[in-house]
Amino acid sequence: SSGQGDLGDLWMLRCDSAATGTASWELVAPSSEHTLIARAAATLSPVSLSDSARPARLVLFGGYDGGICLNEVWLFDTRTAVWTMLLPCTTQQAVDVSVRPDARSGHSAITHNGSSEVVIFGGATDDSV
Hints:
two-stranded antiparallel sheet, mainly beta, 35% strand, four-stranded antiparallel β-sheet
């Protein structure tokens, strides 16, 4: 890496042995057709969905691409290395896609409710970056 600009790579640290304290880094090459925009100050949160008892997916939200703040939501499956863009939805019949957080970067995020929900807080908008 040149050390300049935002990065769009994904690395996984595999803790090989807790007893010996060894670990190794692996560059993850996504197998999906989607290539994410490189970004800074986004959050990546582990989530569990109904088909898995332990978190095997990561939710990426927001960030700053060097020009604008983003409010995209992406799901990364660590088992298949596939990125999927998540679209806003509701249980109501009429879907109001305007009900979602403003684009932001530098926010905080944490999983909640058994790791099936992601809560975000704060951050900066395009006007304050």
